[in-house]
Amino acid sequence: MSRKPCLRLEQESDDVRRAVIYSLRGKLIGSAECYAFLDEVREKIQEGYVNVVLRLNDVDWFNSTGVGIIASIYTSSHNQSGKLYMVGTPERICNLLKTVNLWQFVVPCDTMEDVRIDSAATDG
Amino acid sequence: MVKPEPNNDALHDEVGRLQRAVDELSILNELARAISSSFATDRIIQTIIDRSARAVQAAQATVTVVNPTTGVTEGTIVRVNFDTHGSESFHVDENLLGWMFNNKQPLRCNDIADCELPPGVTFPATVHSLICVPLLVKGELTGVLAAYNKQDRAGFDAADQRLLAIIATQSAQVLETARLLETEQAAERMGEQIRLAGRIQQDLLPPEPPRIAGYELAGCSIPAQQVGGDYYDFLELENQRYGVCLGDVSGKGLPASLLMANLQATFRGQVLQGNSCSESVRWSNRLLFHSTAEDKFATLFYAVLDTREHTLTYCNAGHDHPFHFSGDAEPRRLATGGLILGILETYDYRDEITTLAPGDLVVIYSDGVTDMLDAEDEQFGEARLIELLRSHRAVPAAEVVNHVVAAVQEHAGTTPAEDDLTLVVIKREVE
Questions:
Q1: pLDDT for the residue numbered B6
Q2: Which range (A12-21, A22-31, A115-124) has the least confidence?
Q3: Min Cα–Cα distance to chain A from B31, Å
Q4: Based on CB atoms within 10 Å of each CB, which residue in B149, B245, B311, B395 is the most buried?
Q5: What's the rounded Cα separation, in Å, for the pair B5 and A84?
Q6: Do residues B213 and B431 make contact, with C-beta atoms less than 8 angstroms apart?
Q7: pLDDT score recorded for residue B396
Q8: What pLDDT score does B28 carry?
Q9: What ipTM was estimated for this complex?
Q10: In whole angstroms, what separates CA B232 from the centre of its chain?
Q11: Which residues in chain B are contacts of A72 at CB distance < 8 A?
């Protein structure tokens, strides 16, 4: 019997805004899938998609390893002069990121439209 | 009646057949004795190869050990080479291993150029004859025994193949048993090292809290595994001041414990240089940033208790906000400080000073306390912790720790802990 993946993701790229957008579903914890996700994001940043958009609406489990993954994505993006956008982040994840003081470094957005407005303002 | 004269040729053949059978039995007996006297895989393989090559008069023989699940070579290739003329080493290639993995049949070939080898299988031109037989355990391929180049270029015959197949059958289970034993012994050695690391780590924690007039300190750390990523520390400073620290390194197990030991040593160094709370945290962050991967970090709460001024100066580097119970008010959260350690090279952390009145209680805890799950995946949670602390305000600090640990463990029941559980309590006694 195959194991049910604990993290599912959909990814799209926006060449104009040099952004990669991930919609995550499931558990952002210390699993092999989550570390594979982190590797993939880092690769995309290296390819030039320096802005990362994370949609965590459907992430139902998030722990300190998830914090480490977010922190790592932030630093990789920041080192390439990019931004980390977090769209529709559930309150419990927000609270955890506020506790560890990471929330101040991300760009929180309610919708993808907010991301577009912010990135347009940055480009402008 | 006249007995028929025996045919000389038939008799000669029969004698030869019997002689060969005796030789085979002798070889197998010798092999059985040799391999049963050793539990070392390499030595057993060496014996198998040595006896096999001699038995079939091959110039060279090899055993290739295979993972029975994947069919991939595990890299153990041992050989003997009786060919004094050439130094070239032969081996079965991945295609032949794949064919063996699927077919589990012997392969014999006495003219490589003319043989119908499995697809993709190649050998150097210096190989003129070969036999490969599978090593099978419960029908699964665990290795391949191969003999190359029959001496005098005579070619391997069916009897050679049969003998090698018998050797393979006899050897495979012994080899597998030795391999399992070695794996078990390696796991035992690793387990012993982890137990030792756990004891060393426990020794890094304070054996007992300092005794301070008018105050009680207590602490406890229970790793989820044999070693953990949490730690707490009590440091005696000058002028009746005491450092109190609780750190939580990301991850679990050995990697986290190594980082934890690094953090503790780094942080102690900063504190003992006389730096303020925020300076100690700032420098530790910088040092940790340079010694960790991007996704590794630590949370740290550090406070200096001044027992003359009755103040607690603290800096919270992304740690769960400790509780400060004072009077009948709702507990304050000690949140001032800054980012978790190890993420940014430079960060300006801030201090805050809070006053401790008689009877005040400060509780610093790791997320292993509040995140502990029960059988229904329900967390112990902050609300339960606050209620528990409120109802045990009057008891000594050490008892507060015991009550919390007991309540969290009762909540978990038989559910294994996912995270380390660490707790430090500072209590100003009622005058």
A1: 61
A2: A115-124
A3: 42
A4: B245
A5: 100
A6: no
A7: 96
A8: 80
A9: 0.80
A10: 25
A11: 293-295
Residue A52 banded pLDDT, cuts 50, 70, 90 = very high
Amino acid at B329: A
B336-348 residue pLDDT tens: 999 999 999 999 9
Integer Cα distance of B306 and A16 in angstroms: 57
Cβ of A65 within 8 Å of Cβ of B367? The answer is no
pTM over 0.80: no
B321, closest residue in chain A (CA to CA): A99
pLDDT at B418: 83
Positions of chain B with pLDDT lower than 50, given as ranges: none
Total Cβ atoms within 10 A of residue A95:
11
Number of residues that this document lists for chain B = 431
Q: Which residues, 6+ apart, have CB-to-CB distance to B247 below 8 Å?
A: B230, B231, B232, B260, B263, B264, B267, B298, B299, B300, B301, B319
- Token pair 């004094």: residue: B84
Q: In the prediction, which pLDDT does B78 show?
A: 56
B313 and B306 in contact (C-beta within 8 Å)? yes
Return the closest-CA partner of residue B283 out of B268, B294, B304: B268
DSSP state of B151: G
Looking at residue B26, its pLDDT comes to: 79
Q: Are strands B332-333 and B241-249 parallel, antiparallel or unpaired?
A: unpaired
**β partners of residue A59:** A26
Task: Answer yes or no: are the C-beta atoms of B295 and A67 closer than 8 Å.
Answer: no
- Sequence-distant (6+) residues with CB within 8 A of B60 are B53, B79, B80, B81, B82, B83, B89, B90, B147, B148, B149
| B350, B315 Cβ separation under 8 angstroms | yes
Give dist(CA B363, CA B422) in Å, integer: 11
Contact (Cβ atoms closer than 8 angstroms) between residue B349 and residue B365 = no
Name the residue facing B294 among A63, A72, A99 (closest C-beta): A72
Mean pLDDT across A107-123: 86
pLDDT for A1 equals 40
Residues β-bridged to residue B333:
B323
> Is residue B382 a contact partner of residue B374, using CB atoms and an 8 Å limit?
no
A104, A72 in Cβ contact below 8 A? Answer: no
Mean pLDDT for chain A? 88
Across the interface, whether the CB atoms of A64 and B320 are under 8 A apart is answered no
Q: Residue A98: pLDDT above 90? A: yes
Going by the DSSP 8-state scheme, the letter that residue A105 receives in this structure is G
Considering only CB atoms, A102 lies closest to which of B295, B319, B340, namely B340
